Amino acid sequence: MKNYQTKLLKIHRNIKEGFLSILAGGLYAIAIKYFIFPSEVIMTGTEGIALAVGYFFDNQNLFIILYLSFQLALIIFAFVKISFRFSLRTTLVVSTVVGLLSILPEYQFANPEPQNERIILVIFGGILAGIAKAIAFRYSSSTGDEDIPAAYFSMKYLKPVGNIGIIAALISTLFGITLAFLKNFQIEPVINTLMYTAIYIFMSTETLNSFYRKFKLVLINVITKSPEKIGEKIKEILPHRTFTIQEGVGGYSKNKVKILRAIVTKEEMPDIIQVVESSGKNTFFFYHDISGVYKSYYISPIQ
User: Fold this and answer.
1) Domain check: are 161 and 222 in the same one?
2) What residues contact residue 130 under an 8 Å CB cut-off, 6+ apart?
3) Does the pLDDT value for residue 224 go beyond 60?
């Protein structure tokens, strides 16, 4: 009976992750089709290179072909360096993006001319792309491109995935503005594209880092008389986490208390708070963001 329930849970998880991978791909395709491509900003990584070529030749189909070619190579990298599961989910996301880009009808939500509503397209496109990336990462996949090496290097150096994407953005933006200049040999469109691209990159990166919190660390301090009990519950739900117990004295009561301190990710915080709050009314806790944690700190792999 237990094995049967385990199999059902696994099937349910796979269906859920598959559905959300398709959802992430759908949101990403909408962001590209209706917001990014019309506003002619340069996306990060190989997507940005493919977009720049598409802009240069005024051919969206050329972008799709180049985009697919680049993603296939990166998915192979994901299979070798990350995991089969991650590469399979990423393939599902990328396939959804390519499929929808090919069949979505043409529609204009806003006028992309600089003097009109281009900024709306750029901002909303960045937010939508960031949400799509966060959903994909949250459920063991990615939208491809720089997200694949970002997943690899973020595990290696414990850096937020959005930060690593900025490096890819520098390369693709330089390539894109070079093609923009060669198309008309005018500097004004180049500067204009650069400014709007910077806004898009900022919006998508901040949105991703806000919604995907796997690599954001928190120090929680719990003042209690029974830290061992809380510590044991923490070990039950998060076996890879440890904690430190210190003794203290109440400033007013002069009673002895103990302080449990633990470093956890923001992704793990809801479970920790639930444990602490269930321990009794006499427990007080607070937490704050931290940085500079040594790279040996364990974070479960993206896989």
Assistant:
1) no
2) 162, 203, 204, 205, 206, 207, 208, 210, 211
3) yes
